[in-house]
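Example 836, ligand alpha-L-arabinofuranose.
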Amino acid sequence: MTSAIENKRHKPPSPQRLKLEEPCKFNFDPDGDLRCFDEEWTKSGGFDVDFSKLRDTFGAGSVDLEDDDFVYPDTDDETNRDWLKTFCNMAISYYNEEKDTSLEFFKVLRANYHPSAGITLYITFEANDSLDGNQTKPYQAVVCYLPVFALISDLVMMDMESSWKFLRSVCILSFLLCSCSVCQTLCVVDSREDAKNLNVTLQVDASNTTGRPIPETLFGIFFEEINHAGAGGLWSELVSNRGFEAGGQNIPSNISPWSIIGDKSSIYVVTDRSSCFDRNKIALRMDVLCDSNSCPSKGVGVYNPGYWGMNIEQGKKYKVVLYVRSIGDIDVSVSLTSSNGSLTLASDKIIALASDVSNWTKKEVLLEANGTDDSARLQLTTTKKCSVWFDQVSAMPVDTYKGHGFRNDLFKMMADLKPRFIRFPGGCFVEGVWLGHAFRWKETVGAWEERPGHYGDNWNYWTDDGLGHFEFFQLAEDIGAAPIWVFNNGISHTDAVETASVMPFVQEALDGIEFARGDSNSPWGSIRAAMGHPEPFELKYVAVGNEDCVRPYYRGNYLEFYNAIKNAYPDIKIISNCDGSSQPLDHPADYYDYHIYTLAKDLFSMSHKFDSTSRDGPKAFVSEYAVNSTDAGTGNLLAALGEAGFLLGLEKNSDIVGMASYAPLFVNTNNRRWNPDAIVFNSSHLYGTPSYWIQQFFTDSSGATLLNSTLNGNSSYVEASAISFQTNGSDYVQIKAVNFGDKTVNLKVSMTGLDSRITRVSGYKKKVLTSTNVMDENSFSNPEMIVPHESLMEMHEEEDLMVVLPPHSFSSFDFLKEYANIKMLVSDSYKKISTM
Ligand code: AHR
């Protein structure tokens, strides 16, 4: 293997003596910065890595690096230091002269590269931590994540000189990459399709009897806790780090994003471990040093800005719940204010005698907003001298979907896709970079106050786990989709539990299934019942891990899970991580997981990917697909059209493709960890990318009938399918067609095989998604630039059925089958024209 890490410097220095008074402990602060808790160790250090070479060398994919691929910190090189700080969001020093302590080296364990999503480096820091100087100890693995778009947008944070150097190379590289891939896509289309009139014919056998049923669950969604999809997204909790646990369990700790109102003469704030909740002991102590005479008129205290601002709307109600304790009387104002606190949108007081709050006490306040601000904050302030503790401070809008805690607008956007299944909660989120940071369902159930929360080390942010195991099943039920639970199988990106020791993980999975579908008297089912859902959830699918097939122990671990689950729940369908599309699996499974992220033109041509797959064996679950390369922008039409071609192929191969979902579903634009995504949002607004809208074209497909169809003609950039389906008591034939090329294509639809009771097929509805430029994207300022446009089709008798496919477009045409009570003869070929 060619190492892409430029090992310019030197071999690891021989181990040095460490004179650490205490071993240095690494942890993440709430900003995602990796810090050593000895403050003098922070904020210097860097990498000697040639990132562009990494990108060039690896192409898309993942590599495990060898021992020689150490990366030596190079503090001399400012650019490296800035890269580390800016893109890896972390700063670390490896050497402290005064103390003669050193980190020996960084080691890059693995590098993932997705052309448009960026580079992910899995890094271990090793340090000398023993006095004999002969041992190094891995401390922590870190994901250093470098989104390609961030390479440019985040440069403003760098100093001008190093920015310029770096910007120049990134620009040249990006330009070359973009021009190559876009030209590859577009130029090829040009050269091949220079004929003046492009004409294709879709021969459709419209008989349902020769058609084939499409699985009921073909199209669904994949919800991963990535990009703040849940915490700071679908889950409506407004407070971030509500339990003060995000700074870690060592005290004092960072309380970010909480901040202090007041200065050191008036207030002292610190965390301690005095919480009444056993699984999350950190609480906030606030010593107010001023009183009503000396405090600022608006008081002193703390505020929480939520996830890049709270969306507070006039006339809406917000429930604030918090736990408080004090050694004196308290008089605390709970307020929603503008982002700098100058404007109060809603406020109420918590007043209590010392005797009433000498032990932890739960307090609730209902606030009604008298103004609107989508970057508001929550404040806890007072002008009373006191020592007061707070913990588990929550602020939820009263108006959430069915009161179940889901943000209404995001829920609706998801529901509009009519998903037949929902896969959750990840993705890499399930695995973790380290097992210690994986999503473990038992930590996420029960009262919200008692959940410890966890740091998702793959996407590098903290979640309070308000959206937990229970809420995911509730979400599936509310949205009418079959839940597909992905659980950790004892394997993370870095460490793994060997098969001989995996039984506790198997038991955890069995317990998780019992939680979902056990009766309300069962040990775990009773916890679900206590959470308000005595009826079991309908769990029929589980996935053993995510993308773990190539990792050590996968097969062994998988079989332990498979056997135990089939034994206890024979009806549950089990999904393997191993790809069975090109060769049979070597283990039993009901489905195999298939993920694909690639260039638009490649995904378009993958409409034939499953044509030659064996019809025997488990079905494919295409649980993650997307165009995510340099030609995808942050979600453009070109990407969506590539996906459209692929989806038509999946629909046509739905005898062996059982389910499919785009990834990722959501991105909070303030913390884009993956690009592109289907639904983009901030605290108050949202829009669908063209990829989102393409999925809406397939909402009638699940459970429909695939009609036999053949496409002929002189364009290789058209794919089409035909289905029939029923809705509201009417029968339709639906033709869907993508034109990936830049020329108009005439499509002639020739239908045969119609049931003789049908008197005619009338035009009904056409929907088109296109734009003047294939690189166009939606945005907050123009959220509907590229959305499907619907119109009614008019049909004229005795003409051929001709439709037009505009350049770079996706279209669907719904034809209503009209039945007569009096049987009428119909001709085989339907001769209608749509005036479009
Ligand atoms: O969808 C984003 C990520 O892509 C998922 O977490 C992972 O499964 C895949 O690598």
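Summary: Residues 1-193, 822-836 have pLDDT under 50 and may be disordered.
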